[in-house]
Amino acid sequence: MQVRDVMTSHVESCTNQDTLQDVANKMQSLNVGAIPVVENGQVVGMVTDRDLAVRGVASGNTSNTVSQVMSNKIVTVNADASLEEASALMSQHQIRRLPVVENGQIVGMLSLGDLAVREQADQSAGSALSQISENQTK
Prior knowledge:
This protein is of the alpha+beta class. Helices cover about 35% and strands about 20% of the residues.
């Protein structure tokens, strides 16, 4: 089974010039905790609810733009990759969400939840989650 078979294909994004308030509002309305930062169709970063809270609000930077709080070392996965490859990337990089790309352009998002909803992927998702959680508790 490939990533494209289980990914979320309708992905909302933001730009690195969006305000933290705009991104927080978008997260709330979409009920998501992470939004990819996209420029010209390419993923250049990721902003999470934790980024907004810790790098934004807690640091007193609420009037800043996404570029000041986003993570810019982004790991992506190709839509044609296997679920095992995606799970291995998530484990290796300690991440719970992967932007999915084709020809460098974002086409979806893959989360541990997406892996878990597929019966065939339960083992991959469980393995990735246990490795991610194990390393975060050390």
